[in-house]
Amino acid sequence: MKFGVSTFITDQGIAPAALGRAVEERGFDSLFIAEHTHIPAERRSPYPGGGELPEMYYRTLDPFVALSAAAAVTERILLGTGIALVVQRDPIITAKEVASLDLVSGGRVIFGVGVGWNKEEMENHGTDPRTRGRLVDERLRAMRELWTEDKAEFHGQFVDFDPVYSWPKPVQRPHPPLYVGGGEAAFARVAAFGDAWLANSLPPEELAAKIARMRSVAGRDVPVTVYAVPGNPEIVERYAHLDVERVLLYLPTRPEAGTLACLDQLAGAVERFR
Which of 146, 173, 252, 266 is buried most, with the most CB atoms less than 10 Å from its CB? Predict the structure, then answer.
């Protein structure tokens, strides 16, 4: 089982370059970061975690800018979006950002994607929450065309462009791995697009059955990465008994000194499982 780190990078926490270097120095294989373009001041959508929305959601850095900074000072760790909100992103621009990051990092990108939960946030981007799943699927298909074809063309309900040239192409061919986030509603998307399922902090006792259902829908042995796992050795051990490829340990958003201390604790918690 592999171990990475999942976190929110904000203007109040450790800088992305320092974080990337620290994650690599402690032997983790990957760094996944969250995305929110903004948070509407008045919300109807309840926070999935319950209670008030934590401040880190309001202050996230752009994931591709942050991961580029981390890429510049690292050589080995994989650089993941966990998750990129494709429902809020122009597919032509996003395809170029993903490919550019893959190029400057030497082919270390994992493109984690999802539909999101904050309806007001996506509405500010002109997205109808009722059709967000179909929109995401179409944008992913369009991005695949931009990554894999010298002259790309796409005509759909939500995305429509005549033949275009778009470079750079990703270093990883045919494109960086697509990790599809979400619950059971996302299993069809995993089947259509997923190189892995990005399961969001499901307890081990629930995850085994969901993995079986996901793979039944996909019709293949899709790898699983679990997002935002507490750095508790007993919990990690329970995941070690499941068919999980990677666990992403949750790193709280803190200034540099506090972050480094927390990373040391996380590294210690998984040392015997490496």
Answer: 146
- Under a CB-based contact definition with an 8 Å cutoff, are residues 136 and 189 in contact? yes
The answer for residues whose C-beta is within 8 angstroms of residue 97's C-beta and 6 or more apart is 64
Region of residue 228 (phi > 0: left; psi between -120 and 50: alpha; otherwise: beta):
left
Cβ contact 61:7 at 8 Å: no
Q: Which residues of 25-51 are buried (b: 16+ CB within 10 A; e: fewer)?
A: ebebbbbbbbbbeebeeeeebeeeeee
Indicate the pTM of the whole model. Answer: 0.96
What digits encode the pLDDT tens for the residues 149-192? 999 999 999 999 999 999 999 999 999 999 999 999 999 999 99
Residue 203: asked if its preceding bond is cis (omega within 30°), the reply is no
CA dist 95 and 144 (Å) reads 8
Q: Which of 189, 250, 248, 249 is nearest to 222 (CA)?
A: 189
Q: How far apart (Å, rounded) are the C-alpha atoms in residues 216 and 178?
A: 19
Return the half-sphere exposure (C-beta side, CA atoms, 13 A cut-off) of residue 251: 37
